[in-house]
Amino acid sequence: MRLSEESRSLALETGVQLHAEGSCLVRLGNTHVLCSASLEDRVPEWMRGRGKGWITSEYGMLPRATHTRSAREAAKGRQQGRTVEIQRLIGRSLRQAVDLAALGEVQLTLDCDVVNADGGTRCASITGAWVALALALKARGLERALINQVAAVSVGILEGCPGLRQGLILDLEYEEDHRAAVDCNLVASLPTGGASELSVVEFQSTGEGRSFSRTEATALLDLGLKGCAALMEAQRKAVALG
User: Fold this and answer.
1) How large is the angle between the packed helices 81-94 and 121-139, nearest 10 degrees?
2) Where on the phi/psi map is residue 104: left (φ > 0), alpha (ψ -120 to 50), or beta?
3) In a 3-state reduction of DSSP, which class is residue 155?
4) Higher pLDDT, 182 or 5
5) Which of 37, 100, 137, 210 is the most buried (most CB within 10 A)?
6) Is 82 known to sit in a ligand binding site?
7) Is 215 annotated in some ligand binding site?
8) pTM for this structure?
């Protein structure tokens, strides 16, 4: 069992899609997600004439991303509620990263496709999508629109694991997530203009096996922010930010 402060091994491979303005294959343990960012010189009809850009996302899992084959949602003719919820989370999280007015009337679409799923796919998607987004803005000369770093990590409480301090664990893989008494996803933001304290974009927390105290919630939040800080350091190296 790894220490509570340790996340799974992380790799951020950039430039994996030849035709995307920005792309990143994020490997977080055995969870692998291919993220791409596409820029288009248009915005949704409801935003035309406002002089602002827009960021949206799509999320999906490849049929053999899990232990058994899942039918493609396109074949079913509709998206599952989980898929819709996750892609909305990715979109609203990454909108925190960009000054939409500085972007101009440009739409940036983030595609996150899960190649292998072993827990934390939504968090890995957000972390990798930020890298793809930053690279796409750099490729178009729109770096000025990038105002925040955004990363996400899961955190939880595992009961009956004496090796874990207070039962806390960072970056849960599937089996850990499945057994967790408390399961959380944290999205954090950090200004790109200089050192500053991380702020919370979203903190999704659920007592799967039991309720949890305010003290435990604070401990989970602190551990998650520490994990996001480490992810952001890797992000900066991937896009060569200072």
Assistant:
1) 40
2) left
3) strand
4) 182
5) 37
6) yes
7) no
8) 0.93
